[in-house]
Amino acid sequence: MSGQLWIVGLGPGARNLMPAQTAKAIGAADVVIGYSGYFDGIADLVAGKACIALPLGEETERAAVAIGHAREGRRVCVISSGDAGIYGMASLVLETLARRPGDVMPEVSIVPGISAVNACAALLGAPLGHDFAVISLSDLLTPWERIERRLHAAAEADFVLAILNPQSRRRDWQLPRAREILLGHRSPETPVGYVRNAYRPEQAVWLGTLQTMAEQPADMFTTVIVGNTQTREFRGRMVTPRGYPSSETRS
Amino acid sequence: MSGQLWIVGLGPGARNLMPAQTAKAIGAADVVIGYSGYFDGIADLVAGKACIALPLGEETERAAVAIGHAREGRRVCVISSGDAGIYGMASLVLETLARRPGDVMPEVSIVPGISAVNACAALLGAPLGHDFAVISLSDLLTPWERIERRLHAAAEADFVLAILNPQSRRRDWQLPRAREILLGHRSPETPVGYVRNAYRPEQAVWLGTLQTMAEQPADMFTTVIVGNTQTREFRGRMVTPRGYPSSETRS
Known about the structure:
The structure is a homodimer.
Chain A: E1 4-9, H1 20-28, E2 31-35, H2 43-46, E3 50-54, H3 59-71, E4 75-80, H4 89-99, E5 107-111, H5 116-124, E6 125-126, E7 132-136, H6 144-156, E8 160-164, H7 174-183, E9 191-196, E10 204-209, E11 222-226, E12 232-234, E13 237-239
Parallel strand pairs in A: 1-4, 1-5, 2-3, 2-4, 6-13, 7-8
Antiparallel strand pairs in A: 8-11, 9-10, 9-11, 12-13
Helix pairs in contact in A: 3-4
């Protein structure tokens, strides 16, 4: 007998930004699995359920445990922050299932959520009004050369950039290096926004430029958005227009 | 006296994917402004309010009308589909305000939402498990040369691609041209997903490859997601692993 496996993202943190479908999936589960820090905000939803809290870094274990329970016929919900599909648990669970294709397949449902990218953009204004690229600076599972190639490509092709995992205690040179690469393609006056802990009590929003970001601290809870050549600041908001000046278009 | 201006996205369509904060902003407004097609799904929320429905193509007018009402002291909510910050009304409203910086500035709040990108990814599996680029193929306000440069850059740097506005009645050659560019950098076997009308009654999900997508119809309601070199299909799901094979990493 095969069980049911939901993979959901809790959104940026504020409960009123989590859609009803997510709460419903958590409510329907027998077993809820996620990083220990995620359970506080949803205590009412998980009351009476088996909650399996695993520390950061044990994502692979979370996926394996969730699949194990689902294969035993249970109704399991794996929780991520943000959107489970964007650097979240969704790909890890599906990857883990794909590694043993002969095994019983539980029914898998993924519920979309509001990612850190959507949330931070809303707090900064409208920086994602045009084409954008999302890049994680974590080189734990991706060779740094590949990340650098992406930074060059996105900067050269005038994408707005959303940078996740910009810095951690052990990774301190990647963001300065990314800034250096971007400065090779864009003006030092290009607007840059930092959002830390979006929609949480400790939320902090900073708006500056490629020049001034050098002084601004970042960590694993920070998302950095770098404007394209059209992005402007207006009264503390970052705005990327939805097009290019008409002289440039085909008209 | 200056009013209040909310800019919200309704999400992909299903009401249970719209967070409570969005419903609250609509509920608090005196005037709700948006494309006529958006009002049916939120009839209960807008009952008794002044609803201003403007046709597709009149986005600039919607922004101007919303600002006008807010400047007269009203509480105004502008509605987009998906996330208002991603090719939505947020940048257009802020751009319009910035064009007359001396005027009274209403208080502006942007509520994040679940974009078409998040929604389509969830229906396809987990294609956005790694770095990705979001590109609109509409060359109405962006020169095609710039769009092409972005397609080349994103393909060459191994981004997953989310393609919005792939095709319309008047624009029929852009998606085939994008496919041609992508085939210059990626295998014909690269997984490609199409989602039309995500989370609406007419929802359609198709999973194929760069090779087979040539036969698949698309329109303005379709989002196309093209995998990177690591993306695989597994039992009808598109999965992009969260990293590269360990032989390639620094470790």
